[in-house]
Write a structure and sequence with these properties.
single chain, 184 residues, mainly alpha, 67% helix
């Protein structure tokens, strides 16, 4: 994320986008990306930047900025409900993994999570495509041992998600194919 990426959302004409960025920055304060150690908020900003050409709707951009807050921070759905329109909260929750360690091994948890997001509305699935696109490239680059497992999970997920923006879905699919080809 460059300062210009965050600046675009900080200066967005929609209050909901500006507020979502502020919530994401505050909620993810002190968190860093696993491999790059850059501030975690760079990820939701990158996801929103990726989604923007396909869905410039402020509600979609706000959801992209907030897509990890309920899953990865102390922010709750009730907290978001006080700050955001209900459609944003619904989309965030559709992108929040519902599984827990009590739900079995990794494969069982991923089935639960994938079933959940497969029911998400098209706008939320578009955000998930951008989330996957950003994460797979990072993991493939920085964790070649775990990458085959992670990439296989994401191939399975994207295969099931077919209601988001078709151009972004093709971009993510192509990225996954390239990352899993023997020449990668």
């Amino acid at each position: 994320m460059t300062p210009a990426d965050a600046h675009h959302f900080a200066q967005h004409p929609s209050h909901v986008v500006r507020r979502a960025l502020a919530i994401a920055i505050e909620a993810h304060a002190g968190q860093v990306r696993r491999y790059t150690h850059e501030p975690f908020v760079t990820h939701p900003v990158a996801v929103a930047q990726t989604v923007r050409p396909f869905h410039g709707d402020p509600l979609v951009l706000a959801t992209a900025l907030l897509h990890d807050v309920v899953e990865d921070t102390p922010v709750t759905a009730a907290d978001l409900d006080r700050e955001m329109p209900s459609s944003v909260v619904r989309m965030v929750l559709s992108l929040t993994n519902p599984s827990s360690t009590d739900d079995g091994d990794r494969a069982a948890r991923k089935r639960i999570d994938h079933d959940h997001v497969a029911r998400a509305e098209p706008r939320a699935q578009t955000i998930k495509y951008a989330d996957v696109w950003h994460n797979v490239r990072s993991i493939a680059r920085h964790d070649p041992e775990f990458a085959p497992t992670y990439l296989a999970e994401k191939i399975s997920l994207i295969h099931r998600l077919d209601r988001g923006h078709p151009v972004l879905r093709r971009r993510v699919w192509q990225c996954l194919v390239e990352l899993t080809s023997p020449a990668s």
